[in-house]
Structure formats: C-alpha cells, structure tokens
Design brief:
The chain is of the alpha+beta class and about 210 residues long. It has six helices and six strands; from the N terminus they run αβαββαβαββαα. A six-stranded mixed β-sheet has the order 4-5-1-3-2-6.
C-alpha cells in the first residue's frame, strides 16, 4: 500500500499541538528564606515565615491574573512553596508561555527587589521568594495535585481556595486527612479545564 503522506503530515501537526502547546501557565513560588536550622549548603527547610511570605506574593500573582481576566488556581507544593496554574487555550507554544510568565515574575521582582528574585544563583535567592517561571518548558516536572511528597508525615500537594492561602500550612494536609477535606470541600480544581482563557488579550497588556 502507498503511504498516505497527508495523513502523516496531519498526525505530525496534531502531535506537535499536543506536546508543544501547553494548557497552563505555571508559577512556581519557592521561598529561599531559611529557618536557621539547615545544615551548610542545604535547601531551606519549611518554616512559617517563609511560607507566609510565599502566600503574600501568590496573592500578588492572583491580582495580576485577575487584572488580565485570567483564571488562577493555587495549591501547596507539599513541601515549602506554592504552585499557581493558569489554564489557557492551547494556542501558544512553551516559549511564548514561558516569556509571559517571565514578564510577570520579573515585574514583581522589580517592584519588590528586596523580597522577590528570578535569579538562578542560590546565593542571590537567599532571603527572598524565588519565582521559577522556567517550569514552563516541555519535560519539566512538577508535583501534581493530591501527590504525596517524600517528607515526614507524607504531606500532600493540595488545591487551596484563595482565601485559605495565608491561613494554612503545608503540614496541615497529609495522606490521612486529605480524603476528609475532599469530602467536605470537594475538588477545588474541578473546573480547571473549564476555565481556560485565550492568552491573546493578556499578551497585549504585558
């Protein structure tokens, strides 16, 4: 049988759209505020001051997304930080989405230079909130919602309501109590895919 070249071409186009055009913008909010108990060279451990500060700046990201008419969903990372997912119509590739996330992150770093950084060098992150917009790349890994993490008491990466952000702590959620939370609150990310917005108008404003 002869090869159907048009079918192969269409399949390649479809595959390209699936793997190179993301459904989400991701903001990884990672506090580099140390407790003071870490060993030399260790990553910052979970501490309330750092997590509270991460929550404050997560709310700043939410304000910006609101101003751009983009929906934003937040969850604990299950460790020290927070993840914000902004669902978008699959129209722009990773480079464009990463550039958008970078613009927002750099804007916050310029506005709050003593508290936020986008610098990769650990020594330049120390004492600040690191906005890792480079998570917006094909092949990058990030904990999914309801993922248990490798840490004492098996904390879980849990979706939050925005009014919970400054009231909760990552260790509030573990393998034992998350089922009860789900039963009481439902899945706070249930409408994530229904909330996709076109990024085109937002790109004109940033």
């Amino acid at each position: 049988d002869s090869l159907d070249l048009s079918a192969i071409k269409n399949e390649r186009i479809r595959t390209d759209a699936l793997v190179n055009y993301p459904d989400f913008i991701v903001f990884d909010i990672d506090p580099y505020i140390y407790s003071g108990n870490e060993k030399a060279g260790a990553e910052p451990e979970l501490n309330r001051q750092a997590f509270r500060k991460a929550g404050e700046f997560a709310l700043h990201v939410k304000e910006i997304m609101d101003s751009l008419s983009l929906a934003a969903f937040i969850k604990t990372s299950g460790k020290t930080g927070l993840h914000i997912f902004v669902p978008i119509i699959r129209k722009y590739d990773y480079a464009a989405v990463r550039a958008f996330a970078g613009t927002v992150s750099k804007f916050l770093a310029q506005k709050y230079p003593d508290e936020i950084t986008v610098e990769w060098a650990v020594e330049k992150r120390t004492g600040k909130i690191f906005m890792d917009f480079n998570q917006n790349a094909r092949g990058k890994n990030i904990a999914s919602i309801y993922s248990p993490r490798i840490a004492p008491n098996a904390p879980v990466s849990v979706p939050l309501a925005w009014d919970e952000v400054t009231k909760v702590y990552p260790t509030d959620f573990d393998l034992l109590n998350v089922p009860d939370r789900l039963q009481k609150k439902g899945d706070l990310w249930a409408k994530l895919l229904e909330s996709k917005r076109d990024l085109s108008e937002a790109l004109k404003k940033v």
